Amino acid sequence: MKARVDADTCIGCGLCESTCPEVFKMDGDKAVVIGSVVPKAAEVTCKKAAEDCPVTAIVAS
Ligand code: SF4
Predict the structure, then answer these.
(1) Which helix (H) or strand (E) holds 30?
(2) Fewer Cβ within 10 Å of end Cβ, the chain: N or C?
(3) Which atom belonging to ligand 1 lies closest to the Cα atom of 5?
(4) How do residues 8-56 score in pLDDT, each as one tens digit?
(5) Please, are residues 17 and 34 in contact by the beta-carbon 8 Å criterion?
(6) Could you tell me the distance, in angstroms and rounded to a whole number, from the CA of residue 57 to the centre of ligand 1?
């Protein structure tokens, strides 16, 4: 599974980093994805972060 953040859409709320710090981290006022592949153990929280993003900036599949 991979994840991507649309930087143009992200409003920098920090929720994804709180929900799934294994995959997302804040870089200034935008979230970025750590690494190229989502670790197996973080897939559930990664999907939750994508669902909970208030502006639907995360694609995880
Ligand atoms: S939850 Fe969405 S809007 Fe908030 S920091 Fe993460 S990607 Fe950006």
Answers:
(1) strand 30-33
(2) C
(3) 7
(4) 999 999 999 999 999 999 999 999 999 999 999 999 999 999 999 999 9
(5) no
(6) 6
**Which two structure tokens, joined as six digits, stand for 56?**
């639907």
**3-state class (DSSP) for residue 4:** strand
What is the token pair recorded at 27? 């870089």
> Which of 24, 30, 26 lies closest to 50 in space, CA to CA?
24
- How many other C-beta atoms can be found within 10 angstroms of the C-beta atom of residue 31? 26
Quote the CA–CA distance of 44 and 58 in Å, as a whole number: 14
